[in-house]
Write a sequence for this structure.
């Protein structure tokens, strides 16, 4: 199946480089077409010409002038916020049997293709609205419809722009700064699925929710930002799923989930750089809120805190003059350890992924997921091996082949394969680091 | 009580020490100007002289559409009094998140320290296409063509805008900014005459360029743009489009292909061989090569390169 899907991709890949012979053929075709139309005064054959011009007029400025008539500014949207729509469509399947996959105790993330919908699906629809609120605040709203079911607020927040002392405050419902992947929306990723640890550690939607974030850019010679966050995270949608936090629905600041993140960045050379994140979070497991809760490791003898900590490291090599080579590399590794309730087991999970740009519009990626290192009751040992090939015809569209093999002791290995299309309508999004 | 006072004192002393490290008093209150491209940085130096400290976020040998939004640039912007940028969405892919993350109120939109240089010039190529069809034209700049900084008229208009804004931010420097802007204008007028004389032979010469980024230069020098190697802005060349372009160039007798030095020249050379047109790789920004240290150097080199090739 993968080979079947790959064939048109290879064709497109080969089309990337214009060779002399290919050009020769195109010229011959073009000359033949011109000869066929000989005698008739045709407009010169550049497709950009859209306005009806006489041949005499077009002789001088043809291709140059089609965009030159000043009329209005379509980029100005009056009082509307910058709006965009991102559609992620997928075609593919999970495993030989869906039950194999479920038996592996690997829940899918909310913006992964749904387990309930094999074949064609719409992995996510995202509606984004962003705007300055006033001279002091910016606001953003990201609504998502994952897998064609239900409208969710992925993020909706205000962020300050003019606090003193390099401070910034974000308030609303938003993605935690914890880790690298957790901060990213689906369309910033080079793989169709989130890392395996996402749903296991943070719940299907990652670590996000209503909360408050304060951060400070520290006055150091290199980029260092320190974030503190507090979230009210509710119980997991699926009670069988042990997510690290989720007891924040009850009153008492002690039940909130708190995170601290130190993010540092260094330019190694003009082309190479690293981003290092140190992450820690503490909160309450939903089931461990009450004394005497049997779900707690010590039988709920005392209410206890759950700890999560880890680091992420991103290395990037991208020449300043990207157009000369169209080659770049990004390698990201993230690891987390957690201890559910005081005295509980220490469990860990992580991944390492590399994405290599091999041509102007082509990216190849590989990701290795490791869950259950060390293993625990809620995090059995699992391995994920994923590969992706992404073709990006323009800034606004991407086509991706993605395959993943999931394995582990005592479970049959499962295959996951998807063809993903991603398009973006509306405002031009920026490319964060 | 004694203990409390001592703790209080320690806190104050520690706070002061942290503040001293965090916000050191500047020896002299020079305006810190950060420009998005090196040409704008050079124009800021021309106008600001010793009253400004200038840095550029990108290098002249980079494609200004695709600068990486590195966190180190956040730090540069955090310390800026002024951000001077091209605008018209040239930097839309990288500058907005940097400005937001900079936590610097002085350079946010609407502040005197936020200088959109495109407001000083008359914008060309505003697309005459319904907004919902715009992207079908490629990665077109919806506000108009942002590649405007090379003709002397543009540089002059930008330098005047910078002088006005610098004066707002540093009123004591007003007379100096005014004088320096006038000096620059006088030098440009002299150079402008020289460039016009040297480039007289270019009037009416048909050119093909890689990206639609030489339209302002073409209008200034009287070059006639016959087509582009990119089928649509930001879309990589295809064999069919290239073949059509070659046909067009032969039909119209286009003898010159121009492209920025940061674009790969292999395809332009191939088209050059097919059509007999000469390929000239032009700097488009100060710093495109180490010899181009100022705006005047930049235009000198462009005029020299174009005239020497067009003459052959």
């Amino acid at each position: 199946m993968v080979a079947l899907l790959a064939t048109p991709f290879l064709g497109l890949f080969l089309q990337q480089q214009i060779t002399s012979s290919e050009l020769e053929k195109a010229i011959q075709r073009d000359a033949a077409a011109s000869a066929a139309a000989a005698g008739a005064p045709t407009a010169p054959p550049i497709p950009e010409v859209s306005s009806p011009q006489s041949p005499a007029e077009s002789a001088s400025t043809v291709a140059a002038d089609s965009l030159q008539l000043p009329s209005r500014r379509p980029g100005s949207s009056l009082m509307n916020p910058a709006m965009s729509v991102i559609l992620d469509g997928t075609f593919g399947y999970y495993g030989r049997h869906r039950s194999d996959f479920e038996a592996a105790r690997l829940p899918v993330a909310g913006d992964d293709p749904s387990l309930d919908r094999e074949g064609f699906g719409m992995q996510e629809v995202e509606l984004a609205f962003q705007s300055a609120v006033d001279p002091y605040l910016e606001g953003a709203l990201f609504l998502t419809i994952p897998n064609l079911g239900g409208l969710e607020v992925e993020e909706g927040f205000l962020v300050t722009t003019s606090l003193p002392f390099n401070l910034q405050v974000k308030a609303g419902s938003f993605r935690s700064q914890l880790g690298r992947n957790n901060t990213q929306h689906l369309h910033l990723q080079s793989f169709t699925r989130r890392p395996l640890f996402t749903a296991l550690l943070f719940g299907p939607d990652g670590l996000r929710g209503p909360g408050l974030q304060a951060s400070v850019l520290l006055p150091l010679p290199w980029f260092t930002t320190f974030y503190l966050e507090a979230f009210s995270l509710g119980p997991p949608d699926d009670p069988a799923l042990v997510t690290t936090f989720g007891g924040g629905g009850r009153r008492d600041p002690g039940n909130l989930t708190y995170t601290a993140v130190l993010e540092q960045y260094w330019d190694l050379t003009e082309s190479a750089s690293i981003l290092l994140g140190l992450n820690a979070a503490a909160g309450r497991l939903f089931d461990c809120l009450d004394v005497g809760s049997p779900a707690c490791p010590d039988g709920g003898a005392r209410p206890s805190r759950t700890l999560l900590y880890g680091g992420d490291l991103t290395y990037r090599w991208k020449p300043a003059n990207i157009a000369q080579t169209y080659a770049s590399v990004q390698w990201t590794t993230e690891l987390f350890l957690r201890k559910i309730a005081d005295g509980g087991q220490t469990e860990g999970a992580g991944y390492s992924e590399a994405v290599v740009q091999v041509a102007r519009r082509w990216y190849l990626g590989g990701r290795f997921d490791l869950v259950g290192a060390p293993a625990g009751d809620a995090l059995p040992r699992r391995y994920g091996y994923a590969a992706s090939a992404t073709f990006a015809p323009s800034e606004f569209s991407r086509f991706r082949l993605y395959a993943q093999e999931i394995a582990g002791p005592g479970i049959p290995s499962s295959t996951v394969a998807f063809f993903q299309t991603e398009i973006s309508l509306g405002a031009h999004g920026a490319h964060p680091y | 009580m004694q203990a409390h006072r001592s703790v209080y004192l320690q806190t104050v002393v520690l706070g002061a020490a942290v503040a001293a490290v965090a916000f050191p008093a500047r020896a002299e209150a020079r305006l810190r100007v950060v420009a998005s491209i090196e040409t704008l940085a050079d124009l800021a130096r021309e106008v600001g002289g010793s009253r400004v400290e200038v840095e550029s976020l990108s290098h002249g040998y980079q494609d200004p559409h695709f600068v990486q939004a590195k966190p180190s640039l956040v730090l540069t912007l955090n310390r800026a009094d002024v951000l001077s940028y091209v605008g018209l969405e040239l930097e839309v892919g990288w500058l907005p998140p940097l400005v937001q993350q900079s936590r610097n109120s002085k350079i946010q939109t609407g502040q005197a320290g936020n200088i959109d240089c495109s407001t000083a010039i008359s914008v060309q190529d505003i697309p005459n296409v319904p907004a919902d069809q715009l992207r079908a034209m490629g990665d077109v700049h919806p506000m108009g063509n942002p590649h405007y900084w090379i003709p002397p008229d543009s540089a002059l208009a930008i330098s005047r805008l910078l002088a006005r804004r610098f004066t707002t931010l540093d009123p004591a420097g007003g007379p100096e900014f005014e004088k320096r802007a006038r000096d620059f204008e006088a030098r440009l007028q002299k150079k402008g005459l020289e460039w016009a004389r040297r480039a007289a032979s270019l009037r009416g010469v048909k050119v093909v360029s890689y990206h639609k980024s030489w339209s302002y230069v073409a209008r200034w020098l009287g070059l006639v743009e016959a087509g582009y190697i990119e089928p649509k802005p930001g879309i990589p060349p295809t064999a069919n489009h290239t073949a059509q372009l070659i046909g067009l160039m032969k039909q119209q007798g286009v003898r010159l292909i121009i492209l920025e030095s940061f674009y790969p020249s292999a395809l332009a050379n191939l088209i050059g061989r097919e059509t007999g047109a000469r390929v000239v790789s032009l700097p488009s920004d100060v710093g495109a090569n180490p010899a181009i240290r100022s705006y005047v150097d930049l235009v000198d080199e462009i005029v020299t390169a174009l005239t020497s090739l067009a003459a052959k």
Observations:
- The beta strands of chain B are 31-35, 52-56, 82-85, 114-116, 206-209, 224-228, 256-260, 278-282.
